[in-house]
Amino acid sequence: MFRSTILLSFVAVALGLSAGDLKVSVKAISSSVDSVDDIVISAIVTNPTKEDIRVISKNNILDPTATKSFAVSKQGDELLFSGIRATYDFNAAGVYTTIPAGGSVAVNHTGLGALYDFEAAGTGTFSFSASTHFQTGPDAPIIEANTAPVDVTVKKDVKKRSFIPLERRLSTPTCGDGGRKQVITDSLTYARSLAGGAATDIRTHPNSAEFNTYFGGNSQDDIWYRHDIIAGDLSSSGTRIDPAGICGGSGGVIAYTLVVTSGGNIVGSDIYTCDIFFTSVGTTPSICSGGFDSTTSSRGGVILHELSHATSGTSDLGYGCSVTAGLSVANKRNNADNYRCMGLAIYKHYNC
Ligand SMILES: *[C@@H]1O[C@H](CO)[C@@H](O)[C@H](O)[C@H]1NC(C)=O
User: Fold this and answer.
1) How far apart are CA 122 and CA 1, in angstroms?
2) pLDDT for 42-64, tens place per residue?
3) What tens digit of pLDDT does each residue of 115-164 get?
4) Cα 95 from Cα 310, distance rounded (Å)
5) Is-contact 171 184, C-beta < 8 A?
6) Less crowded by CB within 10 Å, the N or C end of the chain?
7) Which helix (H) or strand (E) holds 78?
8) How many and how are cofactors bound here (predicted)?
9) At a CB cut-off of 8 Å and minimum separation 6, what does 278 contact?
10) Verdict on whether the full-model pTM lies above 0.85
């Protein structure tokens, strides 16, 4: 079924991407700067094949906005990412970029001082390793276009830039529209109960098919804990309307999370929901008749995905349950959609 959907929607572009179909070159405009404000990393993604290639351009080097395009490290220690972690509706055109046959797309990355916690690491030389995983759709295989990391030395000013000033609060959904507020409240309740169900199942069936599919090879205690903190409400949730200005249009953003960092730790977080969260995403019980692979299958699943960002700082390495099942052991632990898929799989197993 997945295959026929792909054929219908992407008929004009290359289907099975293979390694080498996209090449990435990354360089720093200046390898030594005074301030984090002056860091500019320039990337060129080239398509040497004879067909246009359309790929998801979020959470990778093609995305110049505030999603995670790099792993930034100093002396081997990765800096905490404090930009946007979002869930997308992959039917939206704005989620994709087409690299023309024989052509390339260039992207500059700026404003990085707000997206990574340079301050906690102090001045010095930082290594920027580009995220070069590409997918033609949410469940398409991931191809990596490896490229060498680039170094930038920041000599004077690494003070944390504020992306959007966050508000600290407990998990109290607020929304001017009473109906939508109730939807958020219900989805949050579902998200916690999905995570709680997964946590309980990890204790009672530590080698379940679901655990092995979404987290196999990881420590049960560790993955249990990450679900338990979501179920136990140790996060906060946000109240303002789209402060990052990324909802709407063809951008496909369903919901997103912003984390507050201090001294290299997550100390708080806000979750925001966009219009399509209310209009295009199914209820959690609807997965009993439908599937749960898609990000738009369940609102409780969306909030669970966001809560894994908010509480454990997970990344977005791949979306869609079948792709999450194929990640490496370490990437399964670090990928938000694995938590959504595990929670929904356990729900479907016991509640449908
Ligand atoms: C990236 O920045 C460099 C230096 O400012 C500039 O020459 C180049 O045109 C920019 N590229 C894009 C795609 O904006």
Assistant:
1) 51
2) 999 999 999 999 999 999 999 99
3) 999 999 999 999 999 999 999 998 888 888 989 999 999 999 999 887 66
4) 22
5) no
6) N
7) strand 77-78
8) Binds 1 zinc ion per subunit.
9) 180, 183
10) no
Nearest ligand 1 atom to the CA of 40 is: 2
Residue 52 near residue 93 (C-beta atoms within 8 A): no
User: Amino acid identity of 171?
Assistant: S
Q: Locate tokens 């959007």: which residue? A: 164
Q: Taking Cα atoms as reference points, which of 304, 295, 294, 296 lies closest to residue 271? A: 304
* Separation of alpha carbons 117 and 73, rounded Å: 10
- Measured N-to-C along each axis, helices 178-204 and 220-231 cross at an angle, to the nearest 10 degrees, of 150
Collapsed DSSP state (helix, strand, coil) of residue 135? coil
Residues 100, 52 contacting (CB under 8 angstroms): yes
Closest to 58 (Cα-Cα) out of 30, 83, 25: 83
Q: Does residue 306 carry a catalytic annotation?
A: yes
Task: Decide: 106 in ligand 1 pocket, CB within 6 A.
Answer: yes
Q: How many CA atoms lie within 13 A of 209 on its CB side?
A: 4
Is 316 marked within a binding site? Answer: yes
Q: Which amino acid is at 154?
A: V
- C-beta 234 within 6 A of ligand 1: no
